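Bit of a strange request maybe. I'm writing a small parser for structure token strings and I need a real example to test against, not something I typed by hand. Could someone generate the tokens for this chain?
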Amino acid sequence: MLSFIRQFLPQLFVAVILDDEKFTIKAIQLRSNNILTSEEKSFDKEDKFLEHLKLLSKRFHFHYTGLLLDSKEQGLAMTLDEKEFEKLGVGKISIKTMPLNNAFIYTATEHIDYFDSFFEKSGELDFIFSPLALLYYCVRRSDIDPGKTILYVFKHKKIMSLLICKDRKILIGKYHFIEDEAGLEMVDEDGDLGTILDDIDLSGLDDEKIEDKKEEKKDIDLNLDNFDETLDDKLAQLDQLDDVLNEDDTNVKVDFGDEKIEIDELNQFSNDMEFCRNIIKNLEEFYKDERYQGSFIDKLLIFASEPILQGALDFLEGEIFVSPSVKEINTYDLLLELMQKELK
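Reply from user aminoacidic:
Good idea to test on real output. This should exercise your parser:
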């Protein structure tokens, strides 16, 4: 009955993301599945954000708020039996769980309690979404490629989640928060850029498939040589900019010979390279996992809220021998869609 009434009365949906210590929201007014109004705002101060949220909610009988959870203490347990959590290294802290197909999303209870308490000042927090849940929502909306093993990645600024799926079944899932001081070291002990396949036992994989992948590497090597030089140049520039990066103005430009480098560009480069490093690290773990011996990634699909530098994508392709496909998404719209689906 309540869902029937909601169809004819205006409803407010507010998606909230904490970005760089800012409170950013997208709010839509909805009636009969039609968007009547929409607004996007960012707030530097907590009290201004809560005050605005409270004013919005007062205007609607039906109002819902959803948050993207960026806490580091969250992940995916590859079991549907909570008794097995301890074997998987989960459960040493108090956790909240939610099933996600053939696995459980978990997060520390303290984070859920904190945000519930925080949003009480402006009303109520109705939904908390893990980036893993958002990514699997994107997976479900994607076309199935029967029998293929696909690596899916979600990226929103410093937040990323990763799922490897065969059809709709999840094989592994990971969550990462990209640190400000990103580790850009993508080299082996000899100082050379290697590939993850060089360090992995490929005996369980199909020989023809391995040869096909290694043939692709020949076409990539020249691009990687150029990218290696670019990487060294950027790292040198980052070293020289230590003092500048501590300044408040992130739009500063610095001269390096004939080239002017924007701080934002270097920050993005650092962020994108750490993003790629996390993908490579998790893919290496997957190939070494005895449960998936003989499995090989057929496709890589990235859902990103912002463009990723082509140089980083080229480097990633050279490391994993799979060409990345990037699909632009709006994270706020995904949150709003999921909130509406949860109410049906």
